[in-house]
Structure formats: C-alpha cells, structure tokens
Amino acid sequence: MDIQLMYRLLYSLPIPVIIFLLLLFFIYFHPFFSKHSSSKLSKQPKQLPKSYPLFGCLFSLAQNRHRAVLWTSKLFQKSSLSTITLKGPFGKKCVLTRNPSIIKHIVKTHFHIYRKDPIMQFVFSDLLGDGLLLVDGEKWKTQRHFLSHIFHADTFRYRIKSATIKELSGRLIPLFSSATIDKATLDLQDIFHRLTFDILCQVGFSHDPEYLLPSLPRKPLIDAFETAIKISMGRFTCPSILWKAKKLLNIGSEENLRYAVDVLREYLKKRIAGKVEKFSMQSTSIDEGGDFLDRFITRALKCNVVVDEKFVIDTGINFILAGDDTLFSALIWFFWLVSSHPQVENEIVKEIKEKNDDDLNEMVYTHASICESMRLYPPVPLELKQVTEDDVWPDGTKLKKGMSIFLHVHAMGRSTELWGSDYESFRPERWLVKNLSTGNWNFIPRDPFTYPVFQAGPRTCLGKEIAFMQIKLVAATILKRFRIVPLDGFSPVYNSSLTSKMKTDFPVRIIQRC
C-alpha cells in the first residue's frame, strides 16, 4: 500500500513520457541543476511538497516512495491540515483525508458514488479475482449478504474460538516453554504468522498446515501468499504495458506471480473437491458444524447464486487475506507496544488472571489496549477509493469524477485534534473511565468515522468482533504465563504493504512468569 500514492499518478502514462520524466528527475537531483530548480513553483502551503508546473510534486513522491505512509502522515502533522491534495504530472490530482466528517461522507452518506479504485482491481485481479475485497455493486451486495450470515453465526464463532484455543495450548505454549528452557531467540513476527495461518486453514478449509510445529517447518502456502502480494503490489511501480508483456511471455516477476497464485489455487482446489456438487444435490440446511467453505457454498446456493470452482477459490483467497494478514499484523504491534510499556503489561496481566476464556468481554483494559495499539498501527493503513461523479466534501474540497481518494487511517491515529497532544503515547486509559462506585474500568468507544480501523458504513469489517476475540485469547494465553522481551537495541522499522508489518524480524526472548 505504501507505494500506491506515487504510482496511481503515473500508472496510465505512456513509456516515452515516463522516460522523459525520469530524465527530468535526474536533472532535478543533479548537484548543478538542483541549485537552480526552485524558481517557478506553483502555490502550495510551505509544509507540503513543492509542486512544479507540468510535474506537480512528482519529485517528492519519488524521493519518499518507500515510506509513503509515514511521509504522508508527517505531511498532515506538519501542515495541521485534515485534507491534502497532491498534484501529479499533467494536472493529475490525488486527495488524502483524515477528516472524520469526510470519512463519513465517503463510506456512508455518499457511499454509492465511491468505489474501489479500478487500479486496485486491475493489479490484484490475478490473486483476488472476484472476491469480496475487490468487487463493487451488485456482486459486492450479494456476497456481503450471505457472508454476513456466516460471520454472525454463533456456531462459526465457536469454531474459531475452539481452533484458536487448541492451537495456543497444543503448540504455542509448548513452543514458548521450550524457548524459556533453551533461552532461545524467536522471531515473533514469524511465529504469529504461522499461528494465525494454521488457525485460519483449520477454520476455513478443515485442513491443518502444521506450520507451528516445534521444528518450525517450511511454510510454502504463507510464502506463496506473501510473494503474490508483493509482486501484485509491484505492478504499481511498472507501466501496465511492461508487466502485461511479462505476463504474456510468462517471464520475470510475472512468472513468479503465476507460480505463487497457482500454489494457492491448487491448494484450495483440493480443499473444495466435490463440495459444490455435493451441496448442489442436497436440499438440506447449512451444515452448522462445517468449515467456512461448507457454509459459503451452501449459503450461496440458498441465495440462488451461481457457484463454480473459480468463485469459491476467489472467496477462499479473500478469506485468507482478510483473516490472516490483518490479524497477525495487529498481534505483532500489540505485543511490541505492551512489551515496551511495563505498566500497561502489569495492568493487563492483573486483569487476565482474574478472568478465564469465557470472560473475554469483561477484559476491559485488555480491550482498550488492543484498540490503542491499532490506533497507532492500524492493520490496513490506507484505503484507496475512486469517486464516480463530481462531488463536494463537507470541508469544501471539490472532486472531479475519476479522482483517486486515500482514506488515511494511519494519519487519523496521529491527529492532535482527534486524540490530543499526547497522540504518540501508547495510553489505553484514553479509552477508559473509572466507575467511582465500583472502581472498575468502563470502556468508552469512538465512533467508526474517527476510528475507521475496521472501516465504517456498509463495508464495515465482518470479522471485527472475531478479531477482538482472537487477539484477547492470544494475549491472555501468552501474558498469563510468559513475558515477551525484545532483544536489547531492537527497534522496529515500519513497513507497509497491504497491511502494516515490521520490515525485519521481531527477535524476542521468552521468560516464564513466576
């Protein structure tokens, strides 16, 4: 996600134009020319990138292409603006906002004129197909309708909870116990990815990859998925004619993408073998004990949706992205922040020792800590939209049909106006008030337009409550028994793809609690 901002502005340009721009880019940064490059600038607030006639702020975008999420967050902070317009080559514009009233305008009150940006659909179609995360209109409405029945079913939530507890008690706890004895260093980012992927496959496809075994075996499905995401994202950096040619010839990165996608699709093909025919011939109700694919197929058939192998596989891959990548992203940042704030950790440990797995809703301080973690490190830092007709935002910003819009969730969590002057501090208490009569904490939620971590409006995340439940289970299981201690000198480097991750390993030592 962190390079979309630049390449959304460049994507449709012909190759000769791009070569011309690169030459100008060289001229701009050459020591001789750079001394004379600031003479004719278009008017722009001084805190924002310099905008040049014809080229806009292309040079600044290019300089910051590897850190676009953090860079644009800083632009909001330095300028104190809640909406920023960045100019690209030849008058192209891209608008970023962190204004809650505008977020509401986009995702709720004027939802019908904002769609997924076609560029996203274009570059991710090979991986995600016609799944819920990419489609709009009637396709989205139909899928959303019957998927909501699945995610809100108590039996499905119970299946997820049971699988999570089993994976934690059967694999994670023994692994951590061994690490305390051996004084081993673990990469917590890798461990959490194995954990969440094992759980997801058990719940979704009735299959256990066993990636969290003590030997920490190879993880070809995870590797294939990460490769597919990385290369699909890379299409933003490449003129469409070039990657399309590579795809046609099946060479280079496109060959690797095809292989990675084939690995995932072949895996899911085996998981659904015979299911469509089986459920098509049965006039029975949905198998309430079935996995996600069972429920999806039977619910789709019940809604008279044409179900074929590709449709089910597309849905399975979207299920992996929505249920795995975002969850393990939330976990790594939560444990980094908690391990760096002993007072918060002590409060959480005190609370979870008084509760059990059936009291998750009563873990108020833990819940606040999770919300606070995702405020600072939202699993999905940016949401890309396109406006389908001219519009005017509540703050007066005028948009033309076809403009790209970024909802900057990351910047919203770092807004003085929304969170106060201590917005950089990890402070769960900002979500809490003390009940003076009982002495207990009461949780004070924020509206989903101020805190759109799970989106808002009609596209609100279906797995929101499930995600909170799983994070609490993982937190309670680990922190009740162990301390997570990052290696001395470790400081994470933020890296953003579709989801927020750490750029390198997250090395930790595991210490048994007394």
From TrEMBL:
Positions of transmembrane segments: 9-29
Cofactor: heme
Manganese is among the record's keywords: no
Gene expressing this chain: LOC104225123
Membrane as UniProt keyword: yes
Binding positions (heme): C461
Keywords: Heme, Iron, Membrane, Metal-binding, Oxidoreductase, Transmembrane, Transmembrane helix
SUPFAM superfamilies in alphabetical order: Cytochrome P450
GO molecular function: heme binding; iron ion binding; monooxygenase activity; oxidoreductase activity, acting on paired donors, with incorporation or reduction of molecular oxygen
Top-rank taxon, per record: Eukaryota
Pfam families attached to this UniProt entry: p450
Gene3D superfamilies the UniProt entry points to: Cytochrome P450
Protein's UniProt name: Cytochrome P450 94A2-like
Coiled coil regions, renumbered to chain: none
InterPro entries, A to Z: Cyt_P450 (IPR001128), Cyt_P450_E_grp-I (IPR002401), Cyt_P450_sf (IPR036396)
